[in-house]
Amino acid sequence: MIIxxxxxxxxxxxxxxxxxxxxxxVFSDVSSTTALPEGQMKDDLPGTAPMQPNMTSTLRARIMxxxxxNGKLIPVTDKTEFTIGRASEGQPxxxxxxxxxxxxxxxxxxxxxxxxxxxxxxxxxxxLGSSNGTFINAVRVPVNSEQSVxxxxxxxxxxxxxxxxxxxxx
Amino acid sequence: MGGKPDYYVIxxxxxxASQDDIRRAYLKSVQRLHPDKNVNPGETEMFLDVQQAYxxxxxxxxxxxxxxxxxxxxxxxxxxxxQSILLSRKSLLQMKEQQMLYALLQVTTDETLAENAxxxxxxxxxxxxxxxxxxxxxxxxxATAIQLMQKLRPQDIFSVVTFSDxxxxxxxxxxxxxxxxxxxxxxxxxxxxxxxxLQGLQTAVEEIRQYLKPGGVNxxxxxxxxxxxxDERGCLELAQQIAEQSISISGLGIGNxxxxxxxxxxxxxxxxxxxxxxxxxxxxxxxxxxxDRLSQIIVEEVTLQFKTEPGVEMSYAFRxxxxxxxxxxxxxxRMGPILKGKDLSILIEFQVKSEAIxxxxxxxxxxxxxxxxSSSVHPIPPLMINISRPVxxxxxxxxxxxxxxxxxxxxxxxxxxxxxxxxxSSGDYDKAAEHLQRMATHLLAxxxxxxxxxVLLEAENIQKQKAFSENGxxxxxxxxxxxxxPGEIKQ
Lengths: 170, 491
What we know:
The complex is a heterodimer.
Chain A: E1 2-3, E2 10-11, H1 38-44, H2 55-60, E3 63-67, E4 73-76, E5 81-85, E6 97-98, E7 114-119, E8 122-127, E9 134-136, E10 139-140, E11 147-149, E12 155-157, E13 160-166
Parallel strand pairs in A: 5-6
Antiparallel strand pairs in A: 1-2, 3-4, 3-13, 5-7, 7-8, 8-11, 9-10, 9-12, 12-13
Chain B: H1 7-11, H2 19-33, H3 43-57, H4 60-69, E1 81-87, E2 92-93, E3 99-109, E4 121-128, H5 136-151, E5 157-163, E6 167-174, H6 179-187, H7 197-210, E7 217-224, H8 232-244, E8 247-254, H9 260-269, E9 274-277, H10 283-294, E10 297-308, E11 312-321, E12 325-326, E13 333-339, E14 344-352, E15 361-372, E16 383-392, H11 402-425, H12 429-445, H13 449-465, H14 472-482
Parallel strand pairs in B: 2-16, 4-5, 4-7, 7-8, 8-9
Antiparallel strand pairs in B: 1-3, 3-14, 5-6, 10-13, 10-15, 11-12, 11-14, 15-16
Helix pairs in contact in B: 2-3, 5-6, 5-10, 7-8, 8-9, 11-12, 11-14, 12-13, 13-14
């Protein structure tokens, strides 16, 4: 038995998508999990091949960022604290989760928009002084103040909507 | 090819063919090549070859003598058609619960085949003339029928049959129809009466049979905007019968009142598909596109004859290409034709019960793919197919092939739609609305904004009205089905 992380529906092992909510249960779309755009990688690290995300780590990922507008899931490995934003050229600090390839700029995502923290079972976010603000379920949150959230909350970075999913089984 | 042709090649057989296979292959070839029926030069000679081949192979003694004279069978006989199978998992798991596996079956034609002339069409337009067709719908249908007639090639055979309370042959089946007379016959059509599909279908089949060529493209396009009452069973039985004679049906449903489940069942039994138009203006495009696809057929028919192991169930089968359509699950599955340059691809879902797993290898499905291609000089021998997986005791994390994941990401949405529809009919409105909302999220994710909006409106509607709106149900079904079409697949 496998349990859909999104809706808790019970699926038969071997299922690739949840038949109840449509969430993808097994990841194969490798490109959606690369954090940095390829061009940038080449500029910064000449001669190194783009990082190949490890499939097993994808499956074991504790936290996943769900991009609501395109349904993609970005796994976050080995981290209980990470930043979300968009990488831009010439900027020394890059966010842990880069939304640049999803037109984040047009949606008003700042370079370092929020930081996400998982302490024990508690999930929280903090706006790092973004230009267009952060909203939890359409309510704007103050800058630099820690706000607790759940996986069900819709978090808007400017107009870019995400959810943060936590896998409680691993 | 030098020397004497191989008797097995002449009959389209593999060397291990049973006496039964030989007899069947012989009868099929005879139907095609009999001097009373054949038209092309050289076919009488081929008929004699077939006779000779059969005389030898049908007699076990002579067959074994003949076999001894043959050079060894090439390991991989060169065929213009090949199949490939992708599976979602590398191995099955030894465990106590049920598990699932997906298979993507593709039948591909050799590139050289694209040069072959497409076989002539023998097709019939079967038009609904019930009262409800009056006005714009009928006007567009008439204009389109006339337009299609002008696209006919000299070798094509065409007929038009109408039905309401009774059926009528408007243009009898023939080549080189008198365009002017036919046009005025079509212009004079008037809508009145009920919708009795069976009568119409029977008449259309009679027209097709006038020029029936086993293995040709024998096709009926049924246009309707209403429900037929009481004769659904008869229609389905007829569809089953004619499918065996290589006659296929596709359905074009107009507006909201036709029975899409029935029309789907009717068409998919014959390897055909079902289409939907809401706006009568779209009839023309859909019909001309359909006609173009019919004239691009290079392999008329592909069927999958199979059996599954006890404990293994084929729980879903869907044709992704060339025309998206759910398929019936009983063997033989008529997978439909192959068009020029477009592989035939079918996604199959298997449920494997724990009792099916007895050794370290499980064969889920075995059988053969039968191919009818009239442009090939000799019949094509069946392609053997066997889907099996090793059984392992360790949990391994497989990465499923992207093609399967891609197809399933679309198919899952389509199946949630099926779920929601069932829930509405069993009165579980909240659940149905919830499923539709989830669908909308995924549709938005795939950039299908218009369809997502329709789905969301429908979710609201179901909660308020406790039913699907007039056209929402079909719009969503065919909208999500269209997502599976090849044009949508990007690498």
